[in-house]
């Protein structure tokens, strides 16, 4: 430590901000003083940690994540009991990505997500939900920072319950794998207030970013996004266009008065 330049801690933290993750971990091994500086939350603000089999992690590992105020995780092969442990150890998570290749989940795993009150970003890669009440298979993947994803539609009632539970959700990436047997309902993205049955008032999260991935033409009606007036960013990845079919994009945009960014990825262009 005597050979280190006598710099204020905030200067060291600024210097470390230019290091890669591997370099930060190398600096941590030098001494306790540098380890504490490298674990400053500002250096890990957008970092995502991959977790699997929580039993193998030590108390020191979780203490480090808590010290870094880590809020983004990607999980692989977690059992229900491990999810409950994750709620206790990292209750302030804002982003969760499922990365369980081919693993089958049930509705109860989605219910666990409601225990993370600050959750804003949700993604699923190569995972599936298989439950009689779901009917079809879900295989969603997150588009922001994790690559593009696809999903077969969850029934409206289940999807609405999920949206109603995640009030702080800001970004949603939703797509199709294959083509649904039927068109999606007009209010698929518009869960109503369950305490006011029959009312058309939107009661879901105030989404600011929506990504529609691999959408066959005309799967959503022209009124599909009417309730999402808080959107500032919309990305549409068209899977293909059917000849002679009317595009719905114009109708989608009409109510989105706060929209700042529009991205269209069209295979026909």
UniProtKB/TrEMBL annotation:
Superkingdom of this protein's organism: Eukaryota
Domain F-box: 1-47
Name of the protein in its database record: F-box domain-containing protein
């Amino acid at each position: 430590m005597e050979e280190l330049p006598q710099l204020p801690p905030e200067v060291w933290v600024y210097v470390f901000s230019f290091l890669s993750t591997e370099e930060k971990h190398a600096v941590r091994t030098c001494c306790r003083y540098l380890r504490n500086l490298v674990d400053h939350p500002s250096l890990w603000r957008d970092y995502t940690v991959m977790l699997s089999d929580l039993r193998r992690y030590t108390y020191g590992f979780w203490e480090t994540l808590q010290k870094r105020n880590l809020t983004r995780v990607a999980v692989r092969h977690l059992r229900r009991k491990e999810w409950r442990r994750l709620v206790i150890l990292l209750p302030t998570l804002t982003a969760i990505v499922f990365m369980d290749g081919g693993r089958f989940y049930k509705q109860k795993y989605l219910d666990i997500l409601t225990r993370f009150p600050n959750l804003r970003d949700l993604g699923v890669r190569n995972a599936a939900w298989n439950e009689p009440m779901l009917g079809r298979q879900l295989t969603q993947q997150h588009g922001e920072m994790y690559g593009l994803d696809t999903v077969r539609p969850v029934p409206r009632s289940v999807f609405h319950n999920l949206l109603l539970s995640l009030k702080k959700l800001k970004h949603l990436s939703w797509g199709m794998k294959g083509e649904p047997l039927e068109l999606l309902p007009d209010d698929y993205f518009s869960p109503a207030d369950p305490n006011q049955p029959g009312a058309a008032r939107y009661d879901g999260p105030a989404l600011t970013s929506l990504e529609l991935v691999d959408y066959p033409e005309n799967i959503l009606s022209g009124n599909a996004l009417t309730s999402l007036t808080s959107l500032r960013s919309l990305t549409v990845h068209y899977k293909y266009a059917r000849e002679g079919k009317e595009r719905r994009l114009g109708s989608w945009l009409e109510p989105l008065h706060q929209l700042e960014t529009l991205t269209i990825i069209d295979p026909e262009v």
